[in-house]
Design goal:
single chain, Rossmann fold, Dihydrodipicolinate Reductase, domain 2, nine-stranded mixed beta sheet, six-stranded parallel beta sheet, binds nicotinamide-adenine-dinucleotide
């Protein structure tokens, strides 16, 4: 059985990742698209031989689908996902899964009730250098992790979104979070997964320094953040994110361990480098990391399609999405209060 996908929101991530990846997988098809921008959805539907809708609710009612990919603005993710789950469809929702904890919980409950899969598009952990890094940490040859620093910075979503500087990314009610939600949520997820521990404490500075909207006004969302975090096992680390790295993109992570240092994404040839405490060095040439200027296959659609076909739990489920969203929301609260806050680990 081929998985028939409907895609809600036909912007940059749908066009550059989900549509081509669903079309390329022999086990899936792009069956229907929904976006309020009529020309956009019509052109793309012709390209993929899919049905076009300007109202996603109509698509959920009329199109013959197995699953949807939710790629609209952040603040609409929860309702779009819940509507699709209630319609009996599996849902792959882009990150951040929601803009409030309660909404994320509602999504998880809706998936359970409907007995459908809910996966979140936190694709960093599927990237080959990150997969190799996790294997190295799991092997134990670097000993115990002491600390880490991880960075994700680029020039901002105005250089990425199909609507440029007029995009929803710069509107508070549609995005809710700026660079911290956009990039920090990726890193919160990646580090939880790499270290195999939950974050229990976070503090930080979250601020707007330079990014301007299409009218030249400073955006009403953060464009830079520096967070400090502590895991359940006592690992200390920092996450730095920015939308004002006008010189390109940085996506790297360094993990400091009792047996040496693990560097990911710091070298253009070797995606992973291990520098052992005894002076020995291991160089790993692994597949590339996707960046805004160069998308490489993310594996997200392939992984979700496989979980639907094999009736297996998705690789990154709603609970995983909740945990990293919680880190970011708690960081925002801590930054607003100028404090360090505990992150509770509710049962999900
Ligand atoms: N996983 C990743 O690496 C990654 C990368 C980029 C974006 N994203 C996420 O994907 C989502 C979309 O981002 P993007 O970069 O594609 O943005 P974009 O601005 O390029 O596109 C958003 C699209 O959503 C459409 N839209 C707006 N309201 C809608 C509605 N009610 N129904 C259907 N469509 C609607 C817009 O018309 C636009 O075509 C965001 O949540 C973003 O955080 C994830």
């Amino acid at each position: 059985m081929s998985v028939r996908y409907g895609i809600i929101g036909c912007g940059a991530i749908a066009q550059r990742r989900h549509m081509p990846e669903a079309a390329a997988n022999p086990e899936s098809t792009v069956a229907a698209l929904a976006d309020p921008v009529a020309d956009r959805v019509k052109t793309l539907a012709q390209q993929y031989g899919a049905e076009a809708y300007t109202d996603y609710k109509k698509m959920l009612k009329q199109a013959q689908l197995d699953a949807v990919v939710v790629c609209g603005p952040n603040a609409l993710h929860a309702q779009m996902s819940i509507d699709a789950l209630k319609a009996g469809l599996h849902v792959l929702c882009e990150k951040p899964m929601a803009t409030a904890r309660q909404d994320a919980r509602r999504m998880i409950t809706a998936a359970k009730k409907a007995n459908r899969h809910l996966m979140i598009g936190l694709n960093q952990r599927l990237m080959p250098p990150h997969v190799r890094a996790r294997e190295i940490l799991d092997s134990g040859r670097l000993g115990k992790v002491i600390s880490f620093r991880t960075t994700f910075k680029h020039g901002g979503p105005d250089g990425w979104s199909v609507d440029g500087a007029k995009s929803w990314f710069f509107k508070k009610n549609a995005a809710f979070m700026g660079a911290t939600g956009d990039l920090g949520v990726h890193k919160a997820d990646l580090m939880r997964w790499l270290l195999n521990e939950e974050f229990v404490e976070v503090g930080g500075r979250i601020t707007t320094l330079d990014k301007r909207d299409s009218r030249g006004k400073l955006i009403p969302l953060d464009d830079n953040a520096v967070l400090s975090l502590r895991t359940s096992g006592g690992i200390l680390g920092s996450i730095e994110v920015s939308w004002t790295n006008y010189g390109g993109e940085e996506n790297f992570t360094v993990v400091y361990c009792t047996g040496g240092v693990l560097s990911i994404g710091t070298d253009p040839t070797y995606g992973v480098i291990v520098d052992y405490a005894n002076g020995e060095r291991e160089l790993h040439q692994v597949g590339e990391m996707a960046s805004n200027v160069k998308q490489v296959a993310s594996g997200v659609i392939d992984s979700f399609t496989e979980s639907i076909r094999r009736k297996r739990k998705p690789a990154i489920d709603g609970a995983e999405g909740y945990r990293c969203l919680d880190v970011i929301l708690t960081a925002m609260e801590a930054a607003a209060e100028g404090s360090v806050k505990k992150i509770r680990q509710p049962k999900l």
